[in-house]
Amino acid sequence: MRAALALPLVLLFLASSVGAAIADQSPPDFAHPSTPHSLLFSPVGGQEDRPILVIYLRWDDVDYPAGFGAPMVASRFFGTGFPSITFPSVGDYFRRLSFNDLFLFPAAEWEGTEQDGIVQVTVPGTRADFFTLSEQARNKRALELANPYVDFASFDSDNNGSLSNLELIVNVLESATIPLPTRPLHIARVHNHRRPLSFGTAPRRVGGGRAGRRES
Asked: What are the residue ranges spanned by the domains of the chain?
């Protein structure tokens, strides 16, 4: 009988010892501040309202599909009105996902319908030639073509000479050669420009919508 009583007491002692050891340990720090995630994956990234600029590309040999010009693109990104409550749209998706805490709105520009966030540009040459370039060179070319219609420096809220995705999101939408499907949003690929956009080092604002070195 004494041996039978001793076993539960030993188990209870072991359980208490393990519990005490666990209690003495610090909980894991999932934020790992020494190697932080991008700000886009933080409360700031999920709450900082910001503009989107859509650069809509076409080429000498590939035009926009019928029925999918800038007005359609604008409706699919931004819906109607602000804040957008129009489904389906990119703005509405993130508004719903954030429980009305993140609003994405059209970036200021003056191509076509001004202030709709869509800049239509024609890339000289053929689509095939364009895609022989590296991704970095393609992004640079798209930004250069959009530059006359956008004052990029106006989005530089911290005046550090470059743009982050918390200040401006740039998407490149490509016209494609495939037939127009029943769901027209699939006709083009969208690329998010994730790298900061550099404007040089001089500390003052650009005039005339140029994205190069700032005026002194």
From this structure: 45-198
